[in-house]
Description:
Blueprint: H1 2-13, H2 16-25, E1 30-31, H3 32-36, H4 43-55, E2 59-64, E3 67-72, H5 75-106
Antiparallel strand pairs: 1-3, 2-3
Amino acid sequence: MVYDRLDSTFMALADPTRRGMLAALARGEQSVGMLAAPYRMTLAGASKHVGVLERAGLVERRKVGRQQLCRLNARRMQEARDWLSQWERFWTDRLDVLEAVLKEDQR
């Protein structure tokens, strides 16, 4: 189940438009129209991007009157960060070994 969530998170983050929308939402709640504006896309196009983010659990959407307001839900980002951190440790350990070998060669 966690891997399904990770798959949808990374798939959502793979698109630069969606990453831009998330960056905008990090500054606060915005309407779908506001999210669409920098990309000169239709509301329908922006809504599709928001839908991908919403299904990934990265965005929550609510309707207020005729507007759809979106806000960031960063919990899923934390799951992705936690998963990535295991690879950070892996590469740090490998680089430490490489550094030790290079120091030994210099002696």
